[in-house]
Design goal:
PH-domain like, single chain, 20 strands, seven-stranded mixed β-sheet, alpha+beta
């Protein structure tokens, strides 16, 4: 054990069904320490001395395939989960079971543990049940009372549903009116954007002046990322996998439900190039108007990269189950249209918080609202509430932005020279559009969206006023 006196540390972001979690392993002369900011349960901090370890192994749990049975968890496309299991000689009932990092960090950590533990190391990637039996670890020894957690979560779900139904009966009409007003407002915003697209002349990169600009060019990527489904070299891409779920009465009705998602490329910065030069674009809060490519398992052949992506998640692409794969991308070297505010990099907000309503919208989109709620929840209710979040997230898809590492609408400010310029949302509330179509195509899309938003919003508001008039 030549490295027994050395201290090594691995920081990583494990998959977590509730919030984005940061975790680390530290191996020192005294023992192993795991730190995590997970809000509850067996992913929390733990430490163990080397001399207290009886046996060690890694254990895996294969995620179920999509042909039969449950769907894979929506937070990530991963074929299996892997944990580090350490049985204890001093307290057998308090075994160490923590999630492992992936990739090269996982391999380096496991190699270091094998060297330090010697004969105490008994195996790798053992099936979870087999590893528990081999190390004589009880199922409840990881610190979670599973039965109590399930009962508490079910009670909490019932309470939430009952309260939600009561509120819905009282607030349904006001909520419909508010939603209609919001749609009508968005329709007006789209109409103003369409007028701006039509009247604003397209500038070349070299001649664009500070303020509202319209640019048309090519998307540039120094290191293109192959899109997850099509394999097309892209600056940024996003793939969603949906499964068709039939209604309970089995009369042919049903709905698409997203079961997995994957994101790739650099969502935090887009570089637009024309014949005169290049300009960076910060896509935070941009209105992305991107064509969506769709493949259906019952009639389409999914490209090889998409099939490989699904195979890694244990999802079979065949006619035995109705699946749909959706892909949006900004192709490297492909046409891109941008209308936004050209400004100096030094004028961008640094660490500035979003204003009230925008902050809540971003929290709902990214899922960070769940972490905020859990932080102020009493310890006794944290675990059941977190399980309730998972349950409702599976059906309602609230806060599902965490399925992407960084979405374009929520990207942090890019690291650029302070004396440079870039295009961004700006502070004046003007339109900010990024599209993969020329100006005319973007104009048609914005106009069409404006019409249906205005129409649907007006219908909802008129319906509420009609119902209120009959009630009064």
């Amino acid at each position: 054990m030549t490295n027994a006196a050395a201290t090594r540390r691995w920081d990583f972001t494990p998959a977590h069904p509730i919030v984005k979690v940061r975790a680390s392993y530290e191996l020192s002369a005294e023992g192993i320490r795991f730190d995590s900011d997970a809000p509850f349960g067996a992913q929390g901090p733990a430490a163990l001395r080397w001399d207290a370890i009886a046996e060690a192994a890694t254990a895996t749990l294969d995620l179920p395939g999509s042909q039969t049975g449950p769907s894979p968890p929506p937070a990530a496309l991963a074929a299996r989960l892997e944990w580090l299991l350490l049985s204890r000689s001093d307290r057998p009932e308090r075994a160490f079971m923590r999630v492992l990092p992936s990739g090269s960090d996982r391999d380096a950590l496991v190699a270091e543990l094998r060297e330090r533990l010697g004969s105490k190391w008994v195996g790798e990637r053992m099936p979870l049940d087999e590893a528990r039996k081999r190390l004589r670890i009880a199922e409840h020894s990881d610190g979670i009372d599973t039965v109590g957690l399930v009962i508490g979560a079910l009670l909490l779900i019932v309470i939430i549903v009952v309260v939600g139904v009561l509120l819905l009966t009282v607030l349904l009409l006001p909520a419909l009116f508010a939603f209609g007003a919001w749609l009508f407002h968005r329709g007006l915003s789209d109409l103003r954007a369409a007028i701006a697209i039509e009247n604003l002349p397209t500038s070349s990169v070299s001649s664009a002046a500070i303020g509202l600009v319209e640019l048309a060019g090519r998307a540039v990527a120094d290191n293109p990322s192959p899109a997850g489904a099509s394999g097309t070299p892209s600056v940024w891409w996003d793939v969603g996998v949906d499964a068709w779920y039939r209604d309970g009465d089995n009369r042919g009705g049903g709905e698409w439900r997203q079961i997995a998602a994957q994101h790739g490329g650099d969502a935090g910065l887009l570089v637009v190039e024309d014949d005169t030069g290049r300009v960076p674009v910060w896509p935070r809060d941009a209105d992305l108007i991107l064509r969506q490519r769709t493949w259906h398992s019952t009639k389409d052949t999914l490209p090889a990269p998409g099939q490989a992506l699904l195979a890694g998640a244990g999802i079979a692409w065949d006619r035995s189950r109705k699946l749909r794969v959706r892909e949006q991308r900004i192709e490297a070297g492909g046409a891109v249209y941008v209308m936004g505010t050209l400004a100096e990099v030094g004028s961008l907000p640094q660490g500035e918080r979003d204003p009230g309503l925008a902050r809540w919208r971003r929290a709902m989109r990214t899922g960070t609202w769940k972490a905020s709620v859990l932080r102020v929840t009493p310890s006794l209710l944290k675990a059941p509430l977190a399980v309730a979040f998972v349950f409702f997230g599976m059906f309602g898809r609230l806060g599902s932005g965490d399925e992407r590492s960084v979405s374009a609408q929520d990207a942090p400010p890019p690291a650029l020279p302070a004396d440079g310029v870039l295009v961004w949302k700006g502070r004046s509330g003007r339109a900010f559009i990024i599209a993969d179509a020329p100006e005319t195509g973007s104009l048609e899309r914005v106009r069409a969206r404006s019409l249906w938003r205005l129409g649907l919003g007006a219908v909802l508001m008129c319906y509420v006023l009609y119902e209120l008039g009959n009630t009064i």
